[in-house]
Amino acid sequence: MSPASAADDAPGDDLPRRPLHHAAAVALLSWRAGPGLVVCQLAVTIVTGLLPTGTVWGTKLLVDGLTAGDPDQALRAAGGLALLGLASGVLPHLTAYLRAELDRRLDRLLQDELYTAVTGFQGLSRFENPVFLDRLRMAAEATGGALTPVTSGLFDAGRNVITLVGLLFSLTLLSPAMAGLVTVAAVPVLIARMAMVRRRVGVLAGLSATARRQILYSSLITDVRAAKEVRLFGLGGFLKGRVLGELARSQAGERRLDRREAVIQSLLALLSTAVAGAGLLWAVFSALSGGLSLGDVTAFVAAVAGTQTALTGLVETVAGAHQALLLFGYHAEVTSMPDDLLPPPRESAELPAMRHGIELRDVWFRYDDSHPWVLRGVDLTIPYGASVALVGLNGAGKSTLIKLLCRFYDPTRGAIYWDGADLRDVPPGELRRRMGVLFQDYMCYDLTAAENIAMGEIDALPDRARIEAAARLAGAHDIVRTLPRGYDTLLSRIFFGLEDENDPQAGVVLSGGQWQRLALARALLREGRDLLILDEPSAGLDAQAEHEIHSRLVEHRAGRTSLLVSHRLGAVRAADVIVVLRDGEIVEQGTHDDLMAVGGEYAELFELQAKDYLAEAEPARTLLR
Ligand SMILES: Nc1ncnc2c1ncn2[C@@H]1O[C@H](COP(=O)(O)OP(=O)(O)OP(=O)(O)O)[C@@H](O)[C@H]1O
Predict the structure, then answer these.
(1) Given CB 3.0 to 4.6 Å as the disulfide criterion, which of 96, 192, 397, 592 pairs with 584?
(2) Integer Rg of the chain from CA
(3) How do residues 175-218 score in pLDDT, each as one tens digit?
(4) Alpha-carbon distance 62 to 428, whole Å?
(5) Count H helices, E strands: the chain?
(6) What ipTM was estimated for this complex?
């Protein structure tokens, strides 16, 4: 296993720990998101936290003033209570606005951090690792307002603590024993709730593989690319069964959890009721024996209820925040992961323009320790200015070799040198800027034709002449020209805006070969790069287009360092060097004539293809006659 994937798997599927550390990180992020908002919320929190204590004492003064026949005290208390009532009515709205605004800013920051981290991973191995993908999904769940229980929770907890201190102080004046009992009774509630939260997040994390499969199956039901086969092969029922099966599995886990929580919550409610009941009995007996005034009893009952409410609120706040913090733990984990290429690429190193070429020295590669070798001791030179063609049967390792040249992975053993510099010492961004690449599984972007080509070099987007030149070279210009809005035609079934939706010519769907030409134009837009790599550039093209494009490419590649992968051997015969790969090993290399003279694997494949073409041509000619 590569060091990066080992780090991704360890320590298993357990939950990120250190909730207090994460709470501090969220507090710091909130401060970065809006220091003014945080200060305002703090002020509002302190005032709101003192409101219940003020109300308890205001009520006691009012009742005592009324029973003692003291109108001044009663009126002052009533006025104070009215002000407290006003504050209780207004402050929640102010709090809600401040929270929402802080959450919006925090969310932008979190998403920025997450996407910066994910786009910063230079290799591909993470994105093929299901453990990492699960963590990424959990990390993404920490955005979109999921951290509200933490940000609001920090203030809510502060408010509840202030309320509690005030009420417990009042309660201690009336009955120290009762104050102690209420506090002690809250401890098991807190412990039980925390355990419940940890368990819930643990169960949800354990179900993430189920959720991943559920998403996979349901996307197959709705994906336009799968729609043809799903209908033709009648796979709808099968896929639906899979989705519902996974759903039932995840719901069973959640159901067990809900039942367990319902039982524990009921027991905790019983405990709170018993404590409140005991307090009420004590107050009644004390009042009957003359130990407490009517105002004291009112204040006591309100204080016990207020304390229990504040304690329950505190426990719920902490529990909710704890759950969100565990999600934030995944976010913190993903955003602090080191690069998956080890050792981390040096950002400052420069890659000089190519002078001599690229050399693979005894390169061995496998995707993972558990996978078989894909490349076995490859020694290959791509000389500067030469066109090299790579051929071989399916699975021989051709695309893998290209991925290593782009440094999406590092060789497991051996090394690749660019003019003598080990690719491990070259910043991947710098390396990739030197290349134009057409991948076998190229992208079709839901963007305009011009944008689809400009994706190869986004700075060239305003330069229509350059885009057109690349399109001409790839044989795409005549196709794009005839589109309803030429280069500005949206290539998509999905319409972006309402105005587009009403335009019947808004989105255009291209054929496979037409997409192929656009993807080729994208690679050719990166003109003047040191290395041009084309992996099956004519796979989807008709015979005429293939011939036309290959003739142009032969011309274009002349004098340029290039690597061409193709199964159509007629297309590679003009290459300076043809390399035959079999099961990850180079078995032959030389010019077309050399290899034909040797009569080995290349010659055999070439003759086979040539014979097929001739055999196909013969009946066609007969038919035409
Ligand atoms: N991401 C991956 N993870 C694990 N194994 C992979 C991965 N990509 C390719 N392989 C395996 O590596 C081997 C070589 O695949 P590769 O795509 O390099 O072959 P290829 O020569 O380009 O084949 P083709 O002519 O079919 O395109 C195959 O056995 C394939 O299963």
Answers:
(1) 397
(2) 35
(3) 787 777 777 766 777 777 777 777 876 777 677 778 778 888 99
(4) 75
(5) 22, 10
(6) 0.97
**Could you give the angle at the alpha carbon of 553 between the alpha carbons of 549 and 557, nearest 5°?**
175
Cα gap 91→154, rounded to integer Å? 17
Both tokens of 377, joined, read: 């001791």
- 397 CB within 6 A, ligand 1: yes
Ligand 1 lined by 371 (C-beta under 6 Å)? yes
Atom nearest to 402 CA in ligand 1: 18
Tokens of 118: 């994910």
pTM for the model: 0.74
Residue whose Cα lies nearest atom 25 of ligand 1: it is 394
392 lines ligand 1 (CB under 6 A): yes
Residue 579 in tokens: 């390399």
Task: Select from 2, 126, 128, 367 the residue to mutate for testing ligand 1; criterion: most ligand atoms less than 8 Å from CB.
Answer: 367
Question: What's the CA-to-centroid distance between 2 and ligand 1, angstroms?
Answer: 18
Q: Is the pLDDT of residue 9 over 60?
A: no
The C-alpha atoms of residue 36 and residue 104 are separated, in whole angstroms, by 14
Which residue, chain included where needed, has tokens 């230079």? 122
What CA–CA distance (Å, rounded) separates 129 from 402? 20
The 10s digit of each residue's pLDDT in 289-317 is 887 788 777 877 777 787 778 777 877 78
Report residue 364 as tokens: 């061995």
369 lines ligand 1 (CB under 6 A): no
What type of residue is 388?
V
Output the residue whose Cα is nearest ligand 1's atom 30. 395
In this structure, what is the dihedral angle of CA atoms 600, 601, 605, 607, given to the nearest 10 degrees?
Answer: 0
Tell me the C-alpha distance between 581 and 574, whole Å: 18
Distance from C-alpha of 553 to C-alpha of 42, rounded to nearest angstrom: 67
Handedness of CA 313, 319, 323, 329 (dihedral sign): positive
Does the CB atom of residue 34 touch ligand 1 within 6 A? no
pLDDT digits (tens, 9 = 90+) for 426-477: 888 889 989 999 998 899 998 999 999 999 999 999 999 999 999 999 999 9
Q: What is the C-alpha to C-alpha distance for residues 523 and 173, in angstroms, rounded to an integer?
A: 80
